Please model this.
Amino acid sequence: MAFNNPRMTWSELERRLSDGRRSNVPPHANGGDSPAWSRKRQPYVPPEEAAGTEHRSLRRRTSSTPYAELHCHSNFSFLDGASHPEELAEEAARLGLSALALTDHDGFYGVVRFAEAATAVGMPTVFGTELSFGLTKPQNGVADPEGHHLVVLARNPAGYARLARAISEAQMASKEKGRPIVSFERLVELHGGNWVVLTGCRKGTVPAALVDGGPAAAQRELDRLCNAFGRDNVVVELWDHGDPLDSARNDALAELAVRRGVDVVATANAHYATPARRPLATALAAV
Model:
């Protein structure tokens, strides 16, 4: 529904189109007021209740070291993530994680499924997205997408609403699917202190500046983020996927964060729930 259309709930739109109310809508679905509650999608069933399916038993591990995964993609990141949001929530619960963030590319596509599963398995959630900047054409299926990325996490419901607005504006500013038009200046206007910004993966502006221009360029980019969003809202992200550059890059980023007084977080930059999904992930990356 475009921004210029009259304000109307999904349930009211459906009522006008079908002159009826579908049955078996979950009581917590706010009257079916969302496209996520379709006739095709069945309610989430926790592993313990999924008798006769391929679900594993949800045996939780206990961890003496609190860890929340703050950078994670589901298969709603097209040809990038290889696990369903439900699988990610289940595996996070099995591993004893403190919380799990879902950060699919340029959208909240999987958050309803993710939230439903996370609630059922008792997994605290963080909602976010990995925004793409500087796209000249759709990037779906591109092996090495152009542009830069910024991981944004909502601190609270107000942050979620502001981030949803930013995503909607970016998607509707473009006439091409897979090519959102994100304005950095508009993000600065919208955040209002309600977001946490991670420097992100190798496509993040800070890691990319480090590789292309060295520590001085990375420092300038980190300072730009801190000036835009506030130093307390910016976190330097470290990850290691076994790339030859990972260790040296992480050392340099950690040193930069200490020098500029910015917090550091380690992430898996996860794209699948278990090692068993790695072959699928590599196959998707090759498409």
In short: The two ends are 32 Å apart (CA to CA). The chain has a mean pLDDT of 87. Residues 67-286 form a domain with the TIM Barrel fold (CATH 3.20.20.140).
